[in-house]
Amino acid sequence: MASFLTYTTLFTLFSALSITISAFSDELATMRIEKVSHLHFYFHDILSGKTPTAVQIAGPTKALFGTTMMADDPLTEGRERGSKLVGRAQGLYAVAAQEEPALLMVMNFAFMEGKYNGSSISVVGRNPVTHAVREIPILGGSGLFRYARGYALAHTVWYDAKTGDAIVEYNVTVLHY
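Above: the chain sequence. Below: its structure as tokens.
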């Protein structure tokens, strides 16, 4: 009888150890290493013409403060409008400051080309448009950018004061899994 109890006890211990090792092995298999990606593209915000990429959806007609725009702006590889399309900037921006032209941006940069096709990053933050370089936080993402965080540096490379059209260069540093 003593040997039966010994074998039963040993079997139970080995079973528990085997289950623990299996669970630990599964956990290790799903662990991912954090990566850093650097992205560079141009954001084309077109308010004029027959097919604008951003339109006013709310706000006053005589003042800037409170003006809210909905955008579906092309993101391109190069500065030129006809440059290769790599994605779309889709979301809202609003004039959120009374003392200076500063926007609140709530945008998804949805990528449609190459390695990041089908993935997106979400930017939410303040964009003081008259500053030479603005830093906007990345608060999340999808696809290859799941659990993303980081920052986007925006620099206006062309602006037409008459139409409001602009081309903005983005240099993005994003941490993701």
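The mean pLDDT is 89.
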